Amino acid sequence: MAIVNMKKLSVIALSDDEAEVIETLMDMGVTQVEDMTGEEIERKFAGLLSKQANDEAISVYDAQRKTVREAIDILAAHVDAKKVLFAPRRSVSRALFAEIASDTEQTLAFAQEVAGAVRRQGEIRSEENRLRGEIDTLSHWTGLGFSPGYTGTKHTGVMLGTLPLLADVSDTAAKLDEAGIIADIEPVSDDKDARYVAVLYHKASEGALLRLLPQLGFTAAAVSGDDVPEAMIRRYEGQIAALEAEYGKIVSSLKEMAKDKVRLEILYDYLSECVEKEAAYAKLARTERTILLKGWVPAEAADAVVKTLERKFVCETELATPAEEEAYPILLRNPKVIQPFESVTEMYSLPAPHSMDPNKLMAPFFFLFFGMMVSDAGYGLVLTLATAFIVWKYNPQGQAGKLMKLICIGGISTMMWGVIFGGYFGDTIPVLYKMATGKEIVIPSLMNPSADPISVLILSLILGLFHLFAGMGAKAYLLIKRGHIWDAVFDVGFWYLVLGGLGILCLGFVLPGTPVMQIGMWIAIAGAAGLVLTQGRAKKNIFAKLIGGIGSLYDIVSYMSDILSYSRLLALGLSTGVVGSVINTMGSMGGNSIGGWILFFVVFVIGHVFNIAINTLGAYVHSSRLQYVEFFGKFYESGGKAFRPLIRPRKYVEVTQQDA
C-alpha cells in the first residue's frame, strides 16, 4: 500500500526545553503535532494541564509577514532580471539567515520604507490627476484677462459659466436688456459641448439676473483661482514637472532597494517559521514544569525521532500503533513514475485511513485516456519536450511540479496514440506534400477515428469496461482485506459474471456460427441468478430478500451508463484531429507560393498552439472525470486529512551551510 503507516507519538519533556524540542522536531520535519484538546484529555488530566493561548503572537507575526510580502511584490516589479514562471528558491547561507532573523526590526523598517515609497507614488499620481483636472478646467478661460476668483467691485459683480453651444450671445444679452437687467455677456471660448462666457452685471440687478439666467440655459462654472488662467496653468504645469521628477527618483530608489530584496525574502520565511512555532506551542499541554506533546510520525522514522529526543533532552516518549478505526493523517508514498498522478487524487480527496491509495491502479488508465483524447504524435512531442524542459530547468515543486510531470507523461501517451491513429499535427504531412507536389499521400495508421469511428468507439468502451472492472476489483480487495470474503463474491464476483457475460454475448454478434453468444448468455444468467439470491441478504424475511435481489438487477442500467461515458475518448480524440485538419486546410489556401507558405506557417503555429492548449485542458479534465465518477465511485473511500509535519517553511529561500 502507498499509504504510509503512522505511529502515534507522545512526549513528556521539561518546560525549559520546550523551544528546543520544537526546534528539533522542525529540523527533522517528520512529526505532525496534534492539538492537545478534547474530552479524553480533559477527563484524564482534569485540573492538571493548561494550554497556552498564542493567538496574539500569531496575529503579530502574520501582520508583519503581510507587510514584508507586499514589499517583496513591490520590489519584484522593479527587478531588472528577467522574470521566470517557475523561479527556484534562492540559496542563502545559514549565517545570513541568522543575521536577518536576529535583527527583524531593521528589515521590517526596510519593508515599511518600500511601502512608504509606493504610497508616495500613489499620492503623486493623485496630485498630478488633480492638477491636470485644474488645467483642463482653466484651459476654457485662458482669454479671460482676470483671475477666475475675481468677484467684482463695490457696485459690479462677475459670474463665470456656460451657455448652450447654439445659444446666440447677442440674443441672450438682448433678453437681459428687455428684462431691465444691467449686464453684459462676454464670450471667452467654445468647445464641442458649450460656450464659456463671463457675465458682468450691476449688483442692483443681481436678484433678477440669478432668476433669469437659468431660464436662458446658463450654468455657473466651478472655477476659481488667484491669478489669470494662463499664469495658473503655467504654475500647475511646473508643479506637475516637479512631481514627475520626484516620481522618477522614487522609481530609481525602488530599483536600488530591489537589490536587497533577498533580505525581505529571508525575513518572510523566518516569520513563517515563527508562526509555525507559535502554532505548535499552542497545541501543547503543560504543567508548571513540564510539557506534553502528542503527534503522528511515519512508522519508518518513528524510532529515529524517539532516539533523537531522548538523546538531547530529559524526556519520556511513547510510540503506539493507531487503533483499527482511529483516524490518522495521510502521507502517500509511490514510485517516482506514479507520483505525478497523485495530483489527480489530491484534487479530489485523499484516501481515508485504513483504506487504499488508488494511484497505482489509476495511473495506467489515466495515461491511456489522456493520450487517446489528445491523440496526435506532434502534439505529444510538443507537450513532452516543453514540460520536460520546465522540469529540468526550473524544477517546480508541489502541485505545479506534479502537474508538469503528469503532462509530460501524458505527452508520451499522446505520441503513442498519435502513431496508432496516424495524427501528426493533424494531417500536416499530406497537406504539405499536396501543396508542394499536387499529389495525394496517405499516412499509415492502425486505426483512424475519422474514417472508422465505430472501431475506435468499440475500443473506447472496451477500455472503459476494463477500467470499471479494475475499480470493482479494488472494492473486492478491500472487502477481502477486512475479512468480508463472501461480500466480495456476492457484490463484485456476480457482477463480474453479469457484465463479462454480456460482453462475451456482444462478441458473439461479430463471430457468428460460434457458441460464443450462448456461452456469454449463460455466464450472464448465472451472475444475475447469483445477484437475485444474494443482494437481499440483509433483509429479514425470504420475500424481502427475493425482492431486494431482483431490484438489484436494475443497477445494470447504471453500469451501462458508466460504460457509455467512455465514448468521450472517441469524441475528444476525433475533435483533436478534425480541428487540426481544419487548421491545415485554412493554412493551405494560399497554395504553392511564397505568400501561401507564409500564410501556412502563421496559421499552423497559431492554430496548432491553440489546439494543443484547448485539447490538453480537455483531456486533463475529462480523464480526471472518468476517474472521479466512474472509477472512484466503485470503491474509493475518501476524506483523509493530509499529513502536515512541523517543518521550517520555505517560500523564497533555501538555507545552506556555506555562503551562497
UniProtKB/TrEMBL annotation:
<dbReference type="GO" id="GO:0046961">
    <property type="term" value="F:proton-transporting ATPase activity, rotational mechanism"/>
</dbReference>
<keyword id="KW-0406">Ion transport</keyword>
<feature type="transmembrane region" description="Helical">
    <location>
        <begin position="403"/>
        <end position="425"/>
    </location>
</feature>
<feature type="transmembrane region" description="Helical">
    <location>
        <begin position="492"/>
        <end position="511"/>
    </location>
</feature>
<feature type="transmembrane region" description="Helical">
    <location>
        <begin position="454"/>
        <end position="480"/>
    </location>
</feature>
<dbReference type="GO" id="GO:0033179">
    <property type="term" value="C:proton-transporting V-type ATPase, V0 domain"/>
</dbReference>
<protein>
    <submittedName>
        <fullName>V-type ATP synthase subunit I</fullName>
    </submittedName>
</protein>
<keyword id="KW-0813">Transport</keyword>
<dbReference type="GO" id="GO:0016471">
    <property type="term" value="C:vacuolar proton-transporting V-type ATPase complex"/>
</dbReference>
<comment type="similarity">
    <text>Belongs to the V-ATPase 116 kDa subunit family.</text>
</comment>
<keyword id="KW-0812">Transmembrane</keyword>
<feature type="transmembrane region" description="Helical">
    <location>
        <begin position="566"/>
        <end position="585"/>
    </location>
</feature>
<feature type="transmembrane region" description="Helical">
    <location>
        <begin position="597"/>
        <end position="621"/>
    </location>
</feature>
<feature type="transmembrane region" description="Helical">
    <location>
        <begin position="517"/>
        <end position="535"/>
    </location>
</feature>
<feature type="transmembrane region" description="Helical">
    <location>
        <begin position="365"/>
        <end position="391"/>
    </location>
</feature>
<dbReference type="Pfam" id="PF01496">
    <property type="entry name" value="V_ATPase_I"/>
</dbReference>
<keyword id="KW-0472">Membrane</keyword>
<keyword id="KW-1133">Transmembrane helix</keyword>
<dbReference type="GO" id="GO:0007035">
    <property type="term" value="P:vacuolar acidification"/>
</dbReference>
<dbReference type="GO" id="GO:0051117">
    <property type="term" value="F:ATPase binding"/>
</dbReference>
<dbReference type="InterPro" id="IPR002490">
    <property type="entry name" value="V-ATPase_116kDa_su"/>
</dbReference>
